[in-house]
Design a protein that fits this description.
173 residues, 2 domains
């Protein structure tokens, strides 16, 4: 997996990765991406995808599809948009988060959320490094923005999104 290789992280039930990969490919085709690249990772229940579509818009469109056709999505559990991928290194993660966090308007709040898989880095270390670089107020309960850090072994996906910009089948199914 090279850093440019994904802009979506997708969770599925364990053992359903290949069926879920086909489902995701069909959905992205239907949304207008003629050739998305969906890959199984070495992490059980986790896929990555590279789409030519805007990853945050994919999440919004998924929500619309499920509102109209709840049966359409069967195996995909969550779809997480990724704006930048860096090597898993606290400094590189903090740099990318700082660049992406420039979209957080003055007066708005944020929270750093870390999901780690296959890494020895501590969540606290990542959160402190990222939060120290962002000159906005922290709100852990009801933030305006979420700085999302998704560690997948040697690569980390980062996004700065609104709290509702992750697709979760359990919330929409």
């Amino acid at each position: 997996m090279s850093p440019e290789k994904f802009n979506l992280i997708v969770t599925t039930p364990r053992g359903m990765e290949s069926i879920s990969a086909s489902e995701l490919t069909d959905i992205l085709n239907r949304m207008g991406d003629p050739s998305p690249k969906v890959e199984q990772t070495r992490i059980s229940g986790l896929l990555t995808a590279k789409t030519s579509l805007n990853p945050v818009e994919v999440v919004e469109k998924l929500k619309e599809i499920v509102e109209k056709e709840p049966w359409f999505i069967r195996n995909i559990q969550r779809v997480i948009p990724i704006e930048e991928v860096v090597e898993t290194n606290t400094e590189k993660i903090a740099d990318a988060a700082f660049r992406l966090a420039q979209i957080i308007p003055e007066g708005h709040t944020f929270r750093v959320t870390v999901e780690k898989r296959h890494t020895q880095l501590s969540s606290r270390e990542i959160i402190e490094a990222v939060a120290a670089r962002i000159n906005r107020k922290v709100n852990l309960e009801r933030p305006d923005w979420v700085v999302l850090v998704e560690v997948l072994g040697g690569l980390t996906g980062i996004s700065v999104i609104k709290p509702n910009q992750i697709f979760s089948a359990s919330k929409h199914g």
